[in-house]
Structure formats: C-alpha cells, structure tokens
Structure prediction request, 259 residues.
Amino acid sequence: MSIDGRGAVVTGGGRGIGAAVARELALRGARVVVAARSTDEIDAVATALRSGGADAWAARCDVSQPDSIASLLERARRHVGDVDILVNNAGIATAAPIATLELAEWTRLWTVNATGTFLTMQGVLSGMVERGWGRIVNVASIAALRGARYIGGYAASKHAVLGLTRSAAAEVAPHGVTVNAVCPGYVDTPMTDATVANIVEKTGMSEQDALDAILATSPQRRLILPDEVAASVAFLCDESAGSINGQTIVLDGGAISSH
Ligand code: NDP
Prediction:
C-alpha cells in the first residue's frame, strides 16, 4: 500500500465521516491519530483500530482553539513521527436565516470550519514541504459550491475552506504536496440526524417527512455513506493521486451537475 507507514491526523475522527476516514486510512496502512473533543468517541475509534491490528492513537483537540491544535500536532508527531497526511474533517453545522443569524453563531461556524482548517493546515504545511511529500484533504460540502436557504453561515465557512484549499494547493504544488477537498451532499451521520431533528422541531414535520425533504435534494434519493466519502479521501491521500491538486471530489449523486 502506498500510504503504508505514513503518519496521518484525522480531525473530527470520533464519529461520522471522520471515523470512517480514520478506519480507511488505517486499513491502507497509515498510522492514524484520531482527534476531536469527545474523548470517549476518539478512544473508542482508536481502540477499535488497534484491535484490528492498526497503529492508532486518540488525541483530544478542539480545533476552535489554536493552542489545542498546536498541542494535537505535537502529540501526533510524538506518536507517528512526521505527519504526512492531514484530513481536516472536524466541522459543525447550524441553520438559521441570514436575517436572524447571530454574530456569535456565525463566528462559531467560521472558527471551527474555516479557521480550524486553516490553523491545522498551517501547522503541517512547512514540514510537508521540507520533506517533499504531503497530502491534505479538507472535508468541505456541496455547501462550498452553492448556497441554499438557512445555511448562510455554514455555506460561507465551507466556501472559505474551498478557497483555502485551492490557494494552498497553488503554494505547495512544486513541493510534492497536494491539497484537495471532498464535497459531499447529505451523509448518513449524527450531523444529518441532528439536521432532521432540527427540521422536525422548527416545522412540526414528522421525522420521515423531514428525512424525505433531505432525500429530495439528491437525484439518487439516498444519503451518502460515510465509507463512500472515506474512500474518496483515501484515494486523494494515495501516492498515485500525486498529480491531483487543488481539486474537489463532489459526492452528491449528481445534484450539483443536474441543477
Ligand atoms: P458529525 O457531527 O457526525 O461529526 C463531526 C466530528 O467533528 C465529530 O467527531 C466532532 O467531535 C468533531 N468536531 C466538531 N467540532 C469540533 C471541534 N471544535 N474540534 C474538534 N473536533 C470537532 O459530522 P459529520 O461526520 O457528518 O461531518 C464531518 C464533516 O463533514 C464536517 O466538516 C461537515 O461539515 C462535513 N459534511 C457533512 C455532511 C453531512 O451531511 N453529514 C455533508 C457535507 C459535509 P466532537 O463534537 O466530539 O468534537
């Protein structure tokens, strides 16, 4: 395997897409540091990976705190040596019309989704450039490619992630490092469960009707599986993906292209 033995950090690795990415990278031989705030979740993921024979560690980190990111990367280097792969997956989503979106909520979305991605990326880039090899994959969203009602703060923060991805890709292109993004539609994770619950609460719809409204946004009428996203992330981390840089893989069942 071409990422065998590579050191990898996956933020937001305790559940959902991040847990699937950590599993997939470990399966391909990477030595994986699983980071998020909930220690029970990251411990469970790391323990499961180790019991499957992988090298994996849990490291608590809050990507909204610069010191916490610095400490994560320091611990990661102690565990895996060089961090050759970074998956910026930690993220939050909330919904509100722009007219009433509170500044504190806007700031929280940006701090976690955009600034967290920026700072974590910044913490590994120079090492990757010096060594002449690195893979960064940012988990954005189809909300990085278009707007929609009630997701102004989230969409803006994810558009920022894509701008950051493309600019970083241009900066590191001559140095064996690639920076790419994946843009999924609705994925079957606790985040989407929370979205359904929020629609139910705000509209009085039944849970099934709320889920159907979400599924109606996909031409495939289904949620994407975390493992499908993980497979694309792992592909972008592979040695063979070395010429793919500054790109986005859109996993949306054709929603954007048929819009
Ligand atoms: P989940 O809510 O299921 O998981 C999010 C992960 O991020 C958790 O491990 C969470 O752990 C972690 N996280 C959240 N805030 C922070 C923080 N401040 N510091 C460190 N870790 C944090 O979400 P998904 O798996 O669905 O989403 C993962 C990524 O994919 C996000 O960036 C999301 O925006 C994106 N995405 C999701 C889609 C979906 O439909 N679900 C669609 C498109 C993109 P903890 O709370 O313990 O810190």
In short: The chain is about 50% helix and 15% strand. The helical segments are 16-27, 39-51, 66-80, 103-131, 152-172, 190-203, 207-215, 226-237.
